[in-house]
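Field: sequence (string)
Field: structure_tokens (string)

Example rows 1 and 2, in order.
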Amino acid sequence: MELQGNGFIIRGWKKGDEVSLQKNADNPKVSACLMDRFPSPYTMEAAKSWVDFLIDQDPLINFAITINDEVIGGIGLEPREDVYRKTAVIGYWLSEELWGKGIMPEAVKLVTEYAFTYLDFIRIQASVYSKNPASMRVLEKAGYVKEGIMRKAVIKQGEILDEHLYAILK
């Protein structure tokens, strides 16, 4: 399965992605606004583990964003459980060299459409740390609406931050 963007492709992970994944994910500016489970530094061992973990996803919910088959970012859905089982959390990252070029708003739109068409979600949401207004703009451009701010909800790199909640409904 591939989703065609304007100059990029969103696809499942495959063997061989490790080198470009490690190269483009190993940037403190990329990890600064992601959860701590995103490794920093992003080692080759981390890249291999990630690709091995996602090789045979079913259903396909985590994707590589590629240009000329080089991984330049990632985007994924994390299904919630129990009473939230029709909701997914979307998360994403992009190589710093490609920030501000319109790739991520389009990628978020494509994955959101995929999720609503092929998966059983009725709501997709995202959390953005207060120091990341660019990601807030990404979500707004993709049609997500800010639903609220959880004050002092996150500790990232020793800094206490607000968390902005965005969502879109099917």
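Row 2 begins here:
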Amino acid sequence: RQEMIDEGFHPDFPLGVQEQLKILQSRAALPADGGLRDLRSLLWSSIDNDTSRDLDQAEVAERVSGGIRVMIAIADVDSDVTIGSPIDQHASEETTSVYTGIRTFPMLPESLSTDITSLNESADRLAVVIDMVVGGDGAISSTGIYRALVRNQSQLTYSAVGSWLDGSSAAPAKVAASVALQAQLKLQDEAAQSLLDERYRLGALNIDRVEAEAVITDGHVQGINARKKNRASDLIENFMVAANGVMARKLTEAGVCSIRRVVRTPERWPRIVELAARYGESLPIQPDSGALNAFLQKRKAADAVHYADVSLAVVKLMGPGEYVLSRPGGDQPGHFALAAHDYTHSTAPNRRFADTVTQRLIKAVLSQSQPPYSDQQLDSIARNCTLKEDAARKVDRKSVV
């Protein structure tokens, strides 16, 4: 908590937040809205970490003539957190939830982010749906974004679903009990693999990092586990990258300013070239994400045990990402690591303020109303999100030490 304060965060919610929460909790049913699509009958499921309680997204897919239709439901946080309200003001200052391993400092009150706006299992929730068709070649077409009413049918975890998808373990109980859910997840995995192949073709980096995860029982740390990427986490990652690309392009097509997530071309590229040379590999003088990914893939094949160390070194040499104001027609730096020119953050509004802002922007487009933010406000928000993200990393590092 003291590290949070030292890095400029306010870990305690102000009094006005509690008053706003009381109003939200006393609200009767979900608001009636003729513009909502009722999609509760679909077999939505979510996949997240074992301990996740703030569920931002759920997915469902179906095979269509052009490929696989993927729908990604994003928690509609904006419907409960209005601009300028006490909760919104606090979130705009903090900009991110901070996960320290033994304690989470949420951007939004937990009764909101883990309940009222969370896409919890068997609960009816408002959502913004990103609807796209993924072709066999990984190309995305027939994209649409709309508001809907959804119900998460199965809350699943990376650890259980990932090992089942790659064939190393039996299906988890919820999956084993439903033939329809098994087919649904296999279809999602097929679409995700097509997206991944296309991303690699375009030069996206395959970064493989091992994250330490505290094992906590009754508030006490019992041990440390190593959390690695697996087939299920890859599935969600590919869906989220695709969804964020669709969102960025929709906002650009609508002619509105927005916030983009960028990772600039690495200024320390010569250092990355030197790193590759230590392993007997040559990279071009000019930054090239495709060549860098080829080097990474080669290292993974040659020494899978130490590949995470090489990945981490590359991540540090590339430098952190940042949020920037994006104007239609402007020259955008893009996201070097993802090899994506159009990219925003829109899929985690319960824990990132930039995503909440993006949600408000697209809802204004859908309702054909004026954008809720000026260019100056968006630029200020983007700068603060970058600043607080860097501060959150510092808190995390100090917590680990």
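free_text_note (row 2): The chain has a mean pLDDT of 90.
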